[in-house]
Specification:
The protein is α/β, with parallel strands linked by helices. It contains 18 helices and 10 strands.
């Protein structure tokens, strides 16, 4: 059933309904294939007449036959090249279609999916799948179909020209060859699947280790990482040897089957030639015909193995395409109509898993243009609030509303368009500073990008760099300090000009002077906008209109800074603790 599904999906790519031009090129390629194979068979026929002519008239130069022999060879090659050219146009378009389709689909999946998948293994599945799609098409057009067409033509030719027995010998040889190849290759697939598993594991470990290069260095665990990687590679090496041995067995068996078949046909032909029923030229042509099938036959075995493995790889990739996001727009979803920026969490319950409950009956309202802060100990659920607001997850119970619109009933794109986020852990693209800032609004002008950088206190830093905005930030922004990355994140958020601001420990990596300047700039920019601040350092939220204190997934306290201090509860305890730790000046 799974293979049938893969074949059905493969057909939609190889015969795309919406790409008429691609289908025309595919038809052209098939036509050139058939004509080309006919001319290929013309070579041995011309060779037969050349041998017979030389035997009967050795003194007369066979100009016409020689010209015909050269002509059919040239025409055969010409149509083969036209076939390759036409099919390559289709193959590249299909490759592009599926690559873009997979990329688009992966971006449509939820955060939950991406947190549960390992990037290294995921990229290997996509890489193998897209390459397999291209190779399946190539093997079908360059090996399987040519061999089938040539075998069919040759069977008819042998039947008419030589004898039904000769044709029958060839058919039996081909069937035996194919059955042997399929049987052994199917046995080899189990080994290939094992190799894929170890290959995924090795790739994942390598990427994970390199992405965490600094952590490896901090703990001097280079040898530990190498050993972990080598353990997987050792198993892969052992499996690879087993696979190679099975290939040797397969090649030997194929050679034996073909040699016996060739010998039988030649023996039959020689016997007929000895009684004058056929000419020496016929024997030469028969030998040329059979030798002409040698390479396609050997390639047929290789092609079958590759196609079979290709279907395994495609199956894995199609499973990704079948993966459905648990966060989807409803068919009736409409764009969000932003009015004032009023926010409400209404009796919200949420857990990342049944045994990991995070939020319990969270109920609060944020009025338009208010600045509201959330504080609490690590794991209290502060950052989870922002993930729910962005609809990376849906609440288990309750509703989240923006301007009295349930965010489940609006499109995700329109929701995220009005939200601006500066996360605690800023990850940048491996590109330039300018690119990372402009990511907030890719259509922004150079002046707008510079203005955003200035508001985020980045100007002096950028001007000190030889390449300025064209400076590469490295993988995940590792060439920048934590404070520099946070300022880039602030700049790209400001460039987006959102309606609702969300700051998750947005200035935690900055020094006090820079933090104060940026906060003044942010307060000015977000003055008339709804603003949510998730904070650890309480000194940064003393001016908030309202502060919510989260404890074990519930709102334990709420009020202004002075009101909460007066209550002498959790907030007051955190305040005094930070004074003692020197995070707040008395």
């Amino acid at each position: 059933m799974k293979k049938n599904i893969t074949l059905k999906k493969l057909k939609t790519y190889l015969w795309p309904k919406n790409l008429v031009k691609a289908r025309m090129y595919l038809i052209s390629s098939l036509t050139c294939l058939i004509i080309g194979r006919m001319f290929v068979l013309g070579g041995p026929i011309a060779f037969k007449y050349l041998i017979d002519h030389l035997e009967k008239n050795p003194a007369l130069f066979p100009t016409a036959i020689l010209v015909g022999f050269v002509a059919v060879r040239i025409l055969a090659q010409t149509f083969n090249e036209l076939r390759d050219y036409s099919f390559n146009i289709v193959a590249q378009r299909v490759f592009r279609e599926i690559s873009v389709g997979v990329f688009k689909h992966l971006h449509s999946l939820s955060l939950k999916f991406h947190l549960n998948r390992q990037t290294g293994g995921l990229t290997r599945i996509i890489e193998r799948g897209t390459k397999s799609l291209e190779s399946i098409g190539q093997f079908l057009m360059m090996t399987i179909l040519p061999s089938l067409i040539e075998t069919t033509f040759l069977s008819v030719l042998l039947w008419i020209w030589y004898s039904p027995w000769c044709s029958l010998i060839m058919i039996i040889t081909m069937v035996t060859y194919v059955v042997f190849t399929i049987t052994v290759s199917t046995m080899r697939l189990k080994i290939v699947k094992e190799m894929n598993t170890y290959d995924n594991t090795a790739q994942t470990r390598a990427i994970d280790s390199l992405l965490n290069f600094e952590t490896v260095k901090y703990f001097a665990n280079e040898e530990f990482e190498v050993k972990r990687f080598d353990n997987v590679q050792a198993i892969y090496e052992k499996t690879s040897r087993k696979l190679r041995g099975s290939l040797n067995f397969l090649n030997a068996g194929q050679a034996i089957i073909f040699s016996i078949g060739l010998g039988a046909m030649l023996a039959f032909a020689i016997k007929r030639a000895s009684i004058g029923e056929i000419t020496p030229g016929d024997i030469a042509a028969l030998f040329a015909f059979t030798l002409q099938l040698v390479m396609p036959l050997f390639n047929l075995g290789f092609a079958y193995r590759e196609i079979k493995q290709g279907f395994v790889n495609l199956g894995e990739m199609f499973e990704l395409l079948d993966e459905e996001s648990d966060i989807k727009d409803t068919p009736e979803a409409k764009p969000l109509i932003h009015k004032t920026g009023k926010l409400r969490f209404e009796n919200v319950y949420f857990g990342y898993s049944p045994d990991r409950k995070i939020l319990n009956n969270i109920d609060f309202e944020i009025n338009p243009s208010e600045t509201v802060a959330f504080v609490g100990s690590t794991g209290a659920g502060k950052s989870t609030l922002s993930r729910l607001l962005f609809r990376f997850y849906d609440p288990d119970q309750g509703r989240i509303l923006i301007d009295d619109q349930d965010i489940k009933t609006i499109t995700q794109a329109s929701l995220r368009e009005i939200l601006g986020m500066v996360p605690q852990d800023t990850v940048l693209f491996n590109d330039t500073l300018g690119y990372n800032i402009a990511y907030g609004a890719p259509e922004a002008t150079v002046e707008q990008i510079k203005e955003a950088a200035q508001s985020a206190e980045l100007n002096n830093f950028i001007e000190s760099l030889p390449e300025g905005f064209e400076t590469k930030v490295g993988e995940r922004g590792l060439k920048l300090s934590g404070g520099e990355k946070q300022r880039v994140a602030i700049a790209r958020m400001l460039l987006k000009k959102p309606k609702i601001f969300i700051f998750d420990e947005a200035t935690s990596a900055l020094d006090s002077t820079t933090e104060k300047r940026i906060q003044e700039s942010l307060q000015k920019i977000s003055k008339n906008q709804t603003t949510i601040i998730i904070a650890h350092r309480l000194s940064t939220i003393v001016d908030a209109d309202k502060i919510f204190v989260l404890d074990k997934g519930v709102i334990a306290e709420s009020g202004t800074h002075s009101q909460l201090l007066h209550k002498n509860g959790l907030y007051a305890g955190l305040w005094n603790q930070q004074i003692n730790e020197g995070l707040i000046a008395e």
